[in-house]
Amino acid sequence: MQLRARWFGIGVAALAAIPLTVLGPAGASHAAVRPAQATAHSCATAKTGSASCKAIVRTDLASTLSVAPNATPAGYGPTDLQSAYNLPSATAGAGRTVAIIDAYDAPTAEADLAVYRGQFGLPSCTTTNGCFKKIDQNGGTNYPRKDGGWAQEISLDIDMVSAICPNCHILLVEAKSSSFANLGAAVNRAASTPGVVAISNSYGGSDASDATYGSYYNHPGIAITASSGDSGYGASYPASSHYVTAVGGTTLNTASASRGWAETAWSGAGSGCSTYNTALTSASTFGTGCAKRAEADVSAVANPSTGVAVYDSTAYQGYVGWMVFGGTSVSAPIIGAVYGLAGNTGSIDNNYPYTHAGSLWDVTSGSNGSCPTTQWCNARTGWDGPTGLGTPNGTGAF
């Protein structure tokens, strides 16, 4: 395969920090795999009763506010992701809304979304044309305070929905803090908004009980996705809720096989067994080994070393503009947007992937560490903790 360097329109010295890219199927270009990369989490560790976002930024790459003409930002773009997951993104999703739930305010969210969609030739998505809407957790415009880390998360989320379902509308609901109570109120607000078919939650905290927080995530007819976490084994809420689709993470690369891509379990992907919450009915035949709720259910790319391109102009930790992100904050909105493409949420629940596992790419190698029970941390044929049942192969499992 031909190798070339991406040009960022920045100084020559910075090129040493930029990965080579590989020309994949149909000329798709993306970051080549390298050893473990320098990264930073966008959000602080969650305190009791609250959550942290699961975005991880590559700090070994220079970020920039602009990309030279006829160049492509580093990291996977929409064409790559749509190809990897065999998605009908060009023709599906119209008339459906995917909601994004995050804490605090990203003041430049809409402008940054326009840069991302313009760079990749996606249709405009603005407040003016009705495609994009931003509200606070009460449904108004009294936005919370700005937070640079959560602003990165917000840009990541809305960019991934755009990449997977460019015809979907996007609703951004900003909670006034990262407490489960405020994030949950934002979920309820999104669920009460006409047209919303999926709600993505790229955050998590310690395992918690649905008896306390489950009412925020129990919305029949709407698919609720949640990041499984970025620290390996250990249940995370709301991914451990009985009511959500828990989304794990993979490493995504090109391959010579007919699919053109290959995936392994990402070493950071969250997995675990809830202490509190009831198992999904359809998971009982998949040998999870968990007495209660097992996570994850499905997965998508999350390894920062094979991360995605994101644009965010709210500077944080010295990074601004085009960046490369990983974490299960990538995979949760990807799966939320696949639900948007499928358009089935009015008649299914989160057991559906288990009864349609044949429409997923099974991930059978890789690990996120050592566990008392092998499948909780090691990919295998069928269900496993880091990758669940696998990754989308079209929309048939959603």
Automatic annotation (TrEMBL):
<dbReference type="GO" id="GO:0008240">
    <property type="term" value="F:tripeptidyl-peptidase activity"/>
</dbReference>
<feature type="domain" description="Peptidase S53">
    <location>
        <begin position="75"/>
        <end position="398"/>
    </location>
</feature>
<protein>
    <submittedName>
        <fullName>Physarolisin II. Serine peptidase. MEROPS family S53</fullName>
    </submittedName>
</protein>
<keyword id="KW-0732">Signal</keyword>
<dbReference type="InterPro" id="IPR050819">
    <property type="entry name" value="Tripeptidyl-peptidase_I"/>
</dbReference>
<dbReference type="GO" id="GO:0004252">
    <property type="term" value="F:serine-type endopeptidase activity"/>
</dbReference>
<feature type="signal peptide">
    <location>
        <begin position="1"/>
        <end position="31"/>
    </location>
</feature>
<dbReference type="InterPro" id="IPR030400">
    <property type="entry name" value="Sedolisin_dom"/>
</dbReference>
<dbReference type="GO" id="GO:0006508">
    <property type="term" value="P:proteolysis"/>
</dbReference>
<dbReference type="InterPro" id="IPR036852">
    <property type="entry name" value="Peptidase_S8/S53_dom_sf"/>
</dbReference>
